[in-house]
UniProtKB/TrEMBL annotation:
<dbReference type="GO" id="GO:0045439">
    <property type="term" value="F:isopenicillin-N epimerase activity"/>
</dbReference>
<feature type="domain" description="Aminotransferase class V">
    <location>
        <begin position="26"/>
        <end position="241"/>
    </location>
</feature>
<keyword id="KW-0663">Pyridoxal phosphate</keyword>
<dbReference type="InterPro" id="IPR015422">
    <property type="entry name" value="PyrdxlP-dep_Trfase_small"/>
</dbReference>
<dbReference type="InterPro" id="IPR015421">
    <property type="entry name" value="PyrdxlP-dep_Trfase_major"/>
</dbReference>
<dbReference type="InterPro" id="IPR015424">
    <property type="entry name" value="PyrdxlP-dep_Trfase"/>
</dbReference>
<dbReference type="InterPro" id="IPR000192">
    <property type="entry name" value="Aminotrans_V_dom"/>
</dbReference>
<dbReference type="Pfam" id="PF00266">
    <property type="entry name" value="Aminotran_5"/>
</dbReference>
<keyword id="KW-0413">Isomerase</keyword>
<protein>
    <submittedName>
        <fullName>Isopenicillin N epimerase</fullName>
        <ecNumber>5.1.1.17</ecNumber>
    </submittedName>
</protein>
Length: 289
């Protein structure tokens, strides 16, 4: 597909060369049309939509996204953006003054702020690994991170693709090396989905959060949080709502908590399958596997 034909699928200003797609993304008009139809359907019958249709639609969207990410659908929750996913994990876990929270000097500012804030409230210490620059090898990155691990290290927060410097970090090697030392990893994968091959089951990270509005071109407000099954019991969304004490037994507490945090517009998440199918049509390598 030629560049002009490709660009015609977006409503971007034709007088602007839009090169910073990684900042906020841009959604194809065909996907925005689906979102408009979903919103009209919601507003035509809000009770009918939320009580009778929403859960099924959300499960279908989650299943499609899970197939793309090579993850179990039961391990995925929709969140509004990757920063919210990072915060949900950091603010759910309990830390003490004896704990160390490890990150790198390439960590995204918003996520680093969340890490610093949580540390300041718990007394934990933030430890920063300085990565070799400008062209580090995977082995050098792993060595730099492991050199800062101590018996007090509780969690490692790391970008999959660094926002400031666009380094693709050796996430699988880092996750494995940290797990061997009893440390779980929280991957800030804001730029990962759609940019690099991604199999969350094979990766083995305790936590991975990523955006769907960037390189998957879904509407803004669509992102996900993956939590490995053995760690889900300790996780809560940023807003605790009805799922916390729901008597239902047909769904996990993790799903009950994250699937309903109050009345909101769910259409960005529901459009994720449509965005994936659209991108598959334009760029076959980027679509569902």
């Amino acid at each position: 597909m030629s560049a002009p034909a490709f660009r015609a699928h977006w409503s971007l200003d034709p007088d602007v060369h839009y090169l910073n797609h990684g900042a906020y993304g841009a959604c194809p008009t065909a996907v925005l049309q689906v979102q408009s139809e979903l919103r009209a359907r919601l507003e035509a019958g809000p009770v009918r939509f939320f009580v009778r249709q929403y859960e099924r639609l959300l499960d279908e969207a989650r299943a499609t996204l899970a197939a793309f990410l090579e993850a179990g659908a039961e391990d995925l929750a929709f969140v509004s953006n990757a920063t919210s996913g990072v915060n949900a994990v950091l603010r759910s876990l309990r830390f003490s003054p004896s704990d160390e929270l490890l990150t790198t000097d390439h960590e995204y500012n918003a996520s680093r702020n969340a890490l610093d804030w949580v540390a300041s409230r718990t007394g934990a210490q933030v430890v920063t690994a300085k990565l070799p620059w400008p062209a580090p090898t995977p082995a050098a990155v792993v060595e730099a991170v492991l050199s800062r691990v101590t018996p007090r290290t509780r969690l490692f927060l790391v970008d999959h693709i660094t926002s400031q410097t666009a380094l693709v970090l050796p996430i699988r090697e880092l996750v494995q090396a940290l797990r061997e030392r009893g440390v779980e990893t929280l991957v800030d994968g804001a730029h990962g989905p759609g940019q690099v091959p991604l199999s969350l089951q094979a990766l083995g990270a305790g936590y991975y959060t990523g955006n769907c509005h960037k390189w998957l071109c879904a509407p803004k407000g669509a992102a996900f949080l993956y939590v490995r099954k053995d760690l889900q019991a300790d996780l809560k969304p940023l807003t605790v709502s009805h799922g916390h004490n729901s008597p239902r037994t047909d769904r996990s507490r993790y799903r009950l908590d994250f699937d309903w945090t109050g009345t909101d517009d769910p259409t960005p998440a529901l459009c994720v399958p449509h965005a994936l199918r659209f991108m598959e049509g334009c760029c076959p390598a980027a679509g569902p596997r």
